[in-house]
Amino acid sequence: MDGDMMPAPKKSNWGSLFRSEDMVLLGLYFDRAAAEQTVHELGRIGLVELIDLNPHYSPFQRTFAADVKRCEEMQRRLRFLYQQVEGLDGVFVPDGEEYSRETLQVVRLDDLDSHLGQLEANLNQMNVQEEALHLQMNERIEHKYVLEICATFFSDVPRSGATFDLGESRTMLNFITGVVQREKLPAFERLLFRATKGNCHLKFNDLLKPVIDPHTGESMDKAVFVVFFSGETVRTKITKICNAFGANLYPFPFSHNSQMTMYNECRARLNDLENVTITTRRQKVETLSEIAAKLPLWSEKVFCEKAVYHTLNLLNFDTSQKLFVGEGWCPKNRVDDVRLALDRAVRRANAQVPSMVEERKPSSRETPPTYYRINKFTEIFQTIVESYGVAQYHEVNPAPFLITSFPFLFGVMFGDVGHGIIMAAFAFLMILFEKRLQYSKNEMVQNLYKGRYIIFLMGVFSIFTGFIYNEFFAIPLDIFGSRWKYTSESNMACGIDNCDVPSEVLPPLHPYPLGFDPIWKGSQNSLLFFNSYKMKFSIVIGVSQMVLGICLSCVNAKFFREPIDIWYVFVPQMIFMNSIFGYLVFLILFKWLKNWNSEACMSDPTCEPPDLKAILIGMFMSPGNVPPKLKLYDGQAFVQVLLLLAALVAIPWMLLPKPFLLKARFERTKYQIVKNNSDLETPASDVDSHHHGPFNFGDTMVNQMIHTIEFVLGAVSNTASYLRLWALSLAHAELSDVFLEKLLYTSIETGSPVGIVIGFSMWLCATIGVLMLMESLSAFLHALRLHWVEFQNKFYNLHGTGRKFAPFDFAELRQAETES
């Protein structure tokens, strides 16, 4: 439907969290001389979501693609420098700070690019030299061990000059010495024996401490070996086997004098290498210390320049006027801040042409993004909502309701004063030390940090419902004194102020002032009593929240001026929901509020609390017929028939009128468009501009049928889904009882101090591990499901999701880069 034929949505007068902020489409015009300064100012204030005006160009075809690529190369070099600094002990990169624009301007990008390239080349050369030094030093260490240990192998051989030189031609016996990994030695020995057919002899000795392998750089246990053999063919085989096992071969002369000469040369060379290594290391540390102090500034400079060039690629450049032209969305109440930012950029760039900001009227196809002003408290609730889907522009936001409803539903399932105190205290400590936890790199700590406020509220509401349930680590709190007492005349308790005839088992005239009376916890019918209350309470909460969701759909329809959705969606849904489940809530409250011990009721034999399930079933199975035992009030049969008829009428009311009314409205609008635009080139017969897509009556009818069936069946299933509040609350209470009785009370009954300590430790571990962690996570997920499926689907994202406001903001980009 054409935009001028349909009244526009009203302006939002609600708070910014109930509805999204009013957005305007801005046109930005600024001189080329002030382009970089302007974009930098826009990134600093973070208020404009720029629109890509060059969608048909690939990233490589854009004007500043080469600059972006250069910045990415510089970021690669900076990452290399960070890795080099992190690999050194005693050298640290200072914490990043927010640098002013003036500080960043001091660093020229061209100079920084060449400087980083030179630093990378110098460090790579240092690393190559250092690796070569380490390789030589590790080889000299292994060679020194070979000379020391192999000397013991030949210590018993008489030395009389060349007569016993086994390496000369006087004898056919030769040998090879080296170092091999200790765990490979058995296989090495077997393969030598098989390959030479036993024509070799292996002697080895383990090194007392691990050594660094020269080739892999890993520390490993090794052994020095010497292999005696005869013949060049055998030498070739042994050499190949040594290479296959990664053995390092080193020369070893037989002559004692030659051994001492080689040993002294090896030690001298080793000392020289150690000195050179220390000197090289010191130079590297000094170089990287100077680099580390400047890395945050360089990183910020390159990061900002890259973001600026990326943003400039989104803009158009008017060659005739030499102006950059941009479009973007901005919150309406912050347009003046954008103007001030552009003025600051012009002054800093000393540009001759002033920048201009104009507010444009968006076309009917352009949907503004959704933006909420949130703070550190409301952020987690908005995150939970947007995990389901982003709200449409000006659609009602469920987040304000989640602030109280989410922790309350959690507390219903997790109600215990002691458990709530632990949870609230833990969250309070995170809030107290939030500045320290903010920059933690532990993923679990970060998730807990982000949810610290909702965890605190969940703990507070758990304390509140714990007082209602009267449970403190499953122990009843007798704060005000029980209002019931047992007597010898009856097995049942009676009220302490209404016990003149104990056999009548009358309740107290003045009940326990807060929550359940502590006597219920130890009674035989406590489970039946708590189940009855929690089951009914879950239904009351569920129906109330779903009715609230339906009412919010009316608020949306009224805001967007959609009377069809009000009269043919909201009204029949309210009638259907309240005719059945609203009536069930009424029965629950009426049964709770009626005094079944009054004189009039006691004198009437039919005045008994009825079974509400039987009343609801009888309402459908035998309408107009209410047995005396199921009667709650006069005229009940007539009211139930009336409500049943209303529910039946509401189904076709939801199904049929809306598609036909939409078709009639579309036909009427099409006729008006053709009448007013007789020369229209593109026919409007297949477009419904209100829904921004083609209008098809068949699809609309099927879609409405699906929604109707989904609502009718969902009303039943969603109401039953809220019974999880009762089930989780029962499970939590029963687990607490089991841990208390079987672990703590049983150990106390033994009277053994050791047994008590063990029992208390087991009870504490079970409480923390099962109840505080597993059970709380289960309750959290169930509360999340109730809000997403049972509450939000009544009014939220009914016509599709919106688009979240994503402004050009240095802070957001920096955070995203850090997280990635």
Provide an overview of this structure.
With 820 residues, the chain is α+β, with helices and mostly antiparallel strands. Helix content is 58%, strand content 9%. The chain contains 24 helices and 13 strands. Strands 1, 2, 9, 10 and 11 form a 5-stranded antiparallel β-sheet that branches. It has a 4-stranded antiparallel β-sheet with strand order 4-7-3-8, with helices on both faces. A two-stranded antiparallel ribbon has the order 5-6. Strand 12 and strand 13 form a beta hairpin. Helix 2 packs antiparallel against helix 7 and helix 11 packs antiparallel against helix 14. The N terminus is likely disordered.
- Estimated structural class: alpha+beta
The unreliable regions are: 1-8, 158-171, 679-692
Radius of gyration: 41 Å
Distance between the termini: 44 Å
Shape: extended
